[in-house]
């Protein structure tokens, strides 16, 4: 009888330990996979890893016309990617990247850039422009663009 109780206790310890390990070590299928899109949200999940930043120096200075007068825009930017290949390719193509961005900036509307929405729209256009110029074929891309300086006069 005593032997049966000991066997039952040992068996319960193993079953309890196995159940505990299952719940602790269980893979959570509800977490999205890196690089995938969160279902229904339209927002891509950022891959894991440290971000790599590349400043686009010197700052961009462009002029454009607004109501018959000349306006100036000075922008300092940094790009960010989780892939070193994307940053390296952007750096290798810097003359083409800067040319595309200067053309983009000089075609902007002064009034729209005075709004947060206008600045955010410009940021998205900059990101798209850079990814188009860089032509990454390995699936890596420039993930973000950050304005580190934004002066309009």
Output mean pLDDT. 81
Provide the CATH superfamily of the domain at 52-152.
Band 7 domain
Strand order of the largest sheet: 1-2-3
Q: Which residues form runs of ≥5 with pLDDT under 50?
A: 27-36
What is the H-and-E element order?
Answer: HEEHHHHE
Separation of the first and last Cα atoms: 92 Å
Please identify the structural class as seen in this structure.
Answer: alpha+beta
Give the DSSP E fraction (strand runs of 2 or more residues): 15-25%
Number of strands: 3
CATH class of the domain at 52-152: Alpha Beta
Shape: elongated
Helix run count: 5
Largest sheet: 3 strands, antiparallel
CATH architecture of the domain at 52-152: 2-Layer Sandwich
Walk me through this protein's architecture.
By secondary structure, the protein is α+β, with helices and mostly antiparallel strands. The chain has a domain at 52-152: Tetrahydropterin Synthase, Chain A (2-Layer Sandwich), CATH 3.30.479. The protein has helices at 2-25, 84-92, 94-106, 110-113, 116-134, and strands at residues 52-66, 69-81, 144-152. The protein has a three-stranded antiparallel sheet. A hairpin with a 2-residue loop joins strand 1 (52-66) and strand 2. The chain is elongated and about 100 Å long. It starts with a helix and ends with a strand.
Structural features:
single chain; 153 residues; alpha+beta; Tetrahydropterin Synthase, Chain A; three-stranded antiparallel β-sheet; 45% helix
Brief digest:
This protein is α+β, with helices and mostly antiparallel strands and 153 residues long.
């Amino acid at each position: 009888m005593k032997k049966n109780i000991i066997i039952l206790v040992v068996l319960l310890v193993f079953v309890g330990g196995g159940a505990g390990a299952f719940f602790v070590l269980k893979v959570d299928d509800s977490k999205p996979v890196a690089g995938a899109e969160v279902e229904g949200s339209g927002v891509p999940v950022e891959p894991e890893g440290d971000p790599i930043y590349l400043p686009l120096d010197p700052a961009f200075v462009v002029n454009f016309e607004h109501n018959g007068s000349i306006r100036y825009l000075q922008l300092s930017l940094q790009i960010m990617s989780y892939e070193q290949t994307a940053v390296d390719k952007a750096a290798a193509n810097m003359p083409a990247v800067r040319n595309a961005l200067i053309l983009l900036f000089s075609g902007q509307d002064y009034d729209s850039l005075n709004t947060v929405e206008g600045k955010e729209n410009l940021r998205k256009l900059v990101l798209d422009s850079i990814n188009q110029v860089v032509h990454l074929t390995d699936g890596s891309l420039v993930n973000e663009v950050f304005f580190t300086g934004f002066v309009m006069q």
